[in-house]
Specification:
Two copies of one chain form a homodimer. Helix content of chain A is 45%, strand content 23%. By secondary structure, chain A is α+β, with helices and mostly antiparallel strands. In chain A, β2 and β3 form a beta hairpin. The first copy, chain A, is globular and about 45 Å long. β6 of chain A pairs antiparallel with β6 of chain B, so a sheet runs across the interface. Bound molecules: zinc ion (ZN) (4 copies). The site of one zinc ion has 8 residues of chain A, from α6. Chain B binds a DNA duplex (30 and 30 nucleotides) through α4.
DNA sequence: CTAAGGTATGAAAATAATTATTAATTGAGA
DNA sequence: TCTCAATTAATAATTATTTTCATACCTTAG
């Protein structure tokens, strides 16, 4: 937990910015909710418990900042809002999501078998791929039984 | 061009709905702009040339309808609005997009090599995949030269 | 023909997520 | 302690999208 906070502090310093209580509290909530995919409003509500005076706009600004700093990644599940999760950092690319159309459950996929596909695309389209976002839609095992 | 319009007419009829001039004009614009990824506002402006009395709300309603009818697909390029393109129909899954972070160009990828990956995921996670959305971010050949 | 009942529409109002503005506060460094 | 830029909360403004609502348009029954 300390590590990520220190990384943030360093990256902020490089930019001439500082690690404020609001920023610390926001990152803490995201760290404490690894595995969840919280949206801005949900993060705001949780952060307020530790930091009741924080404003929603600050949460928006902080999340934007954390994304720029490569600390969190923004996820779009086509539900009308942005969601966030911590970047693990031990992978070159972020993991991917299975979205159940039956119960809206989100399952994380660890494997990253897109490398081969990326190589083909890079060759065929002369395009230098930096990142990708992949979502799979379908039915989870629970919903399938019904 | 006639074919897709007829398909729409049939699917609308099944639902007890009708093919109105506004709906025809909207679909025509999308058909005429194959390869583009127009957003709602852009579609509205183009449709107005043929159908000046159309309202923006009708364009929103029509695009929603076309998506339900499986005639167009909605694309989210993280630029704050929905974009649409015609579904080719000759593929099981829609094609994917390379998004250049240098010039915002969008390149379409025809190949679909995710089948193997999908099979693995279906086995490992017992998840029945119906569709997927894939975006690649990076630099196009032009931007790479700079 | 005429009324009834449903669908569709444009205009305007309402929502929801996000961003900009502003004036006050904070805190690191001289 | 003083200075000054960074940060913040509160609020207003934006933007994309949806909903409301009164009206227009069809199709069909009488
Ligand atoms: Zn499910
Ligand atoms: Zn995740
Ligand atoms: Zn480019
Ligand atoms: Zn496309």
């Amino acid at each position: 937990m300390l590590e990520t906070m220190d990384i943030l502090k360093d990256r902020l310093k490089e930019k001439g910015s500082k690690l404020t209580p609001q920023r610390r509290a926001t990152l803490n909530i995201i760290l404490q909710n690894k595995g969840e995919h919280l949206n801005t409003e949900e993060i705001y509500e949780l952060v307020r418990k530790d930091c009741p005076e924080i404003g929603l706009a600050t949460v928006y600004r902080t999340l934007q900042l954390l994304e720029e700093m490569d600390i969190v990644s923004r996820i779009n599940l086509d539900d009308g809002c942005s969601r966030y999760e911590i970047k693990t950092g031990d992978e070159d690319h972020q993991h991917h999501h299975l979205i159940c159309q039956g119960c809206n459950k989100i399952i994380e996929v660890k494997i990253d078998l897109l490398d081969h596909l990326e190589q083909e695309i890079e060759k065929e389209y002369d395009f230098d791929i930096k990142d990708h976002k992949v979502k799979f839609f379908g039915l989870c095992s629970d919903c399938n039984k019904k």
